[in-house]
Fold these 3 entries.
Entry 1:
Amino acid sequence: MKDKVKFILEIPIYEVKNKIDLNYDILGLKIENNEEVRYLKGLLPIIEKPIMIRAETELLTDVINNLDRECIVGIIDDKNYKEIVPLIVKDNHSAIIRTPIDINLAKEMNILCYEMGLQKIFIDTDIGGIGYGFEYGYSIMEKIKLENDKFLNKPIISFAVEETLKTKEAKDKNMSLYLEICAASAVMACGAEYIVLNSSEALNTLRRLV
């Protein structure tokens, strides 16, 4: 497991310069407006590790056009794939394909994107927060791992931490760290190869667990 699991630390874009040397495998950036798209272009030269970029559909085209290397790009779903996948394919990026918590929908979206030339796919089956439907999402990831299907034989990326930190229990600072570690540990146990984290404290703890 130690060799397979990659931790993505998602950092607010304006904090990257102060956290550039943290012990993550991939730097995650969530772009939320046009000003951040412009800031990203100047930030890229100082980033040496692999990058994951997330943005709303209306920003994704500009984000992709500003990238200077191959990145993991998302989120791609049934509403935007026809528009965004050709851009991802053209620049040889990887795509995060998100579907509702359903193995058949995950396979269907992967096939649609594959037929458009997309080879590098990360599966995001979506998931609830801990105690908020988490177990069902967990079971779907397990099922994908058990399938012998070329369209599902793709790495799973999990945003379980993000969903868990939206819960009312996570409003307490100490509890939020505990819940982040629990959520990440659970999806790691069911086979997620890429896990998106929010805090460096959780990252340091999880490093000691794998």
Note: The mean pLDDT is 92.
Entry 2:
Amino acid sequence: LDSLSKLVDRSMIYTRENAAQSMRYNMLETLRQFAGKVVQTRKEDGDLRKKHLKYFLSIVEDAYEEQFEAQSKWLILLTIEQDNLLAALAWSSKYSTSAFIKLIAKLSWYWIIKSQYQTCKENHEKAISLSTQDNEDKARLLYGMGINLFYFGEAVRAAALCEESVKIWRRKKNPIELATTLAYLGYIHQVFHKNNVTGFAYSEEALAIARKIDKPGIINHCLYYYCSSLVHSKQFVQAIPYVEELLISSEKLNQPWGIMIARHLHSDCALGTNDYIETEKRYSLGIRTGVKYGSDWFQFIDMQGVAFALSAQSRWAKCIRLNAASVEKARSIGMNTRGLFEFWDEWIDTYIEGAKEQVGEELAKKYEEEGIAMEFETAVEYALDFEKD
């Protein structure tokens, strides 16, 4: 610490407080480059990279183990360390295949919550191609890739990967990982393959295992996929008590992903039961929550939800503008709001296409162009202003 303080005094290292309210020490880029060359000249680079990789792999492993119980804490820390994580990934991809695979296998949950879908997909494709053994890391890779593929509309492949992951976890007799994967697999079967019997059987098995383990975070994880299955099968009234339980437990755990999903599903239930004023309020809260936790997904999908509610209130212009802004935001990260869920596509047809028919082709085009031209942050402010338009 004394040496570090002297370097700070000489302005060779500077300090700043990070999001976790702790001190961060940084080096000027010119000094970093010079130091890097010295290290390479002394042939010390490999040893330092190994130490760096070992340290950040341990952080990733701790985060993975606590992803449900201490999610908020680890989201903050992993975001702060994102550049270090990418550096560890880049080096391990060339010099340590096993560490590279382990990093990818245990980072997918973070990338998905932070809407870094393309990063997740590219790394998983590479890691799966390098993984030759049906071990625990392979099972995690398959599950992580399966979740990520949902956001690209590849439900068939997602289910196949998760089925393979479940087989490995059953052999390994790991109840926590088995429950985690079964919960998502049940959701995939129910929502995308319309197989209610298989889907809910997996979901109920996952919940039963989670309750037996008695870990609140795992129970919460299984619960939000069960709630999603109910909502996607349009069982809105039946879903409401489960969704409300999910929101309470997610807030108690301070689990951002559970909170965002619960608020989104709560909004879906309001729309599904034709309470349009409440729908607008709930989806707006969903947008705020997405902004708070840095999720692009919940920002743009809940913005489209607000557009649905506005259409049902005959507020056509604002509806079309916000929908266009939402779709444009999704496209900017390689996604599409249509084609993900059958019931959501039906709402797009009913509320968005219905609004366009009401105003006519010329006005609809004008409002769409105005929505696309908005900065997304401006569109968020516009969506949250209940009195405007």
Note: The mean pLDDT is 93.
Entry 3:
Amino acid sequence: MRACIVSSGIWRIRNLIEGMTGFEPVCGRRYASEENFDLVLGWGRRPTSNAAQTLSQKTNKPFVSIEDGFLRSIYPGRNEPPISLVIDWAGVHYDATCASEFERCVETAAALNTPETSARARAAMHLLRELALSKYNHA
């Protein structure tokens, strides 16, 4: 799938996005008028993603939200490459105005409420604490 990128910040990490998603990044400034893409990528639901959301609506192509992952980088800062990304076709985890894929996954797992699911969640939380992992891991 060809992913139209209009954000310079997303364009800088296009190789990472391609490797993680398989999307073929195309520069929105070059291809937007041709509509030679399948979806539009934007940084979450921030005002900086307005151009991507507008292009998505104008071309009737899906808007896909990208955010820094919950384990973001070794050190904080714009120049640090992300070690994980959240790619969400429905919304974004911090926006309470609409559901996100992350929210739906949590709800689905909670609805199952099996001993295996609970044990897996407890083990994951324990591991995060044991390894002292946080969003930036610098402290």
Note: The two ends are 39 Å apart (CA to CA).
